[in-house]
Amino acid sequence: MSSGPDSPAYWWEFLKHPFNQTVVLGLVAGALALSVPWGGDGLGLGLIALAAVEMVGLATVPSLAPFRAWVDKRERSRARETRRQALHTEVLGHGGSPHLRSYEQMTTRVASLYRTAAGKDGGLTEREVEQIDDLVVDFLRLCLSDAVLKGSKAVQLPPQVEYRLRDIEKRLEAGGLSRDEELQLRQAKAEYDEAIARQTRMATRRNTLEASLVAMPVRLEELYQMVLTAPRGGNLSQMLEESVSKLRLAEEAVADIESSLEGGAQASGAIPIHTRAAARDQRRALGQKN
What we know:
Blueprint: H1 10-16, H2 18-38, H3 40-60, H4 65-93, H5 100-118, H6 126-151, H7 161-174, H8 179-229, H9 236-267, H10 277-287
């Protein structure tokens, strides 16, 4: 794994590792023991040995691929659990979602897949199970979007919009308008057309979100049953990639809905819904295969 601004400090992780701390304590105890018969010379000799061991460890262990893989896996797990707890709290704060029960079932299935992958009996690796776990956390974000949409007052177009639009079109077709009047009417027509198109698009995206919330648990259950019944049969990796692709489509739908709601909230003077683009990009990076 290449180092980057968000990469963990492997040398610091080595120093904090329980095994290294045990070695340090053992060498310090040895140095103290040597100081009993030989005084300061024994203590100094023990501390020199401690420094030598730590220098060798710092020079070799942080660059080892297995150690880096262990650190990366722990950091991914820590970040995932932080997101999970924050999203779950936020969902409950918005009144909950009826799809939380599906989320709990998915969490149980993923825990079982982790045990299967650890036992080397399934057709999925631990890294692939981590990707599935990322999908489950992303499903929780969809639950949050569902809770926000159900609890928010969506901007509804007044029923007279279409009537006003037809009236503008008739006036433009009739002609006989001054340049300023025609410009104002065309601008009003463009705004009405945009509002109607936005409303239609939002309805479509809401349906896409609802379909994803229904389909993802079914898809995970299918994959789970396949791992248990025929772990070497079927293309599990392809199924996983298809699930990631479908999730991204759902995320695009959610992003479009949030953008539309923000635009409506700003127009009405309400507080806009906060965007989550950075978190979405991070999830997509975690969802990609190494």
